[in-house]
Write a structure and sequence with these properties.
This protein is mostly helical. 62% of the residues lie in helices and 0% in strands. Helix 1 crosses helix 2 and helix 1 runs antiparallel to helix 3. Bound molecules: zinc ion.
């Protein structure tokens, strides 16, 4: 990840722990697809519920890097909306 936006120079990490807030958006983005995976696996396999939940999270793992980046982008948009920082 770049320290600054290559186009406008915006500093991405404004302070230590800046992206902790992105975890809220990561959570919001992840729950619906994992819930759908749980429902699908439960209907299709007939496995025990705890196994279905574990399998759904394992199936979801390849999407985690993309969702993490989307969550960071959403976090930066929200942060810039409420506390804008001029590019340097
Ligand atoms: Zn930019």
């Amino acid at each position: 990840m770049h320290a600054n936006c290559p186009v406008c120079g915006l500093r991405f990490v404004r302070e230590p722990g800046y992206f902790v807030g992105a975890m809220y958006f990561s959570y919001l983005l992840s729950i619906p697809p994992v819930f759908l995976l749980v429902l699908l696996l439960w209907r299709l396999t007939g496995w025990r519920y705890d196994l279905v939940v574990l399998a759904a999270f394992v199936c979801y793992l390849p999407a985690v890097p993309a969702v993490t980046r989307w969550a960071r982008v959403i976090w930066m948009y929200v942060d810039q909306h409420f506390d804008p920082e001029r590019s340097t």
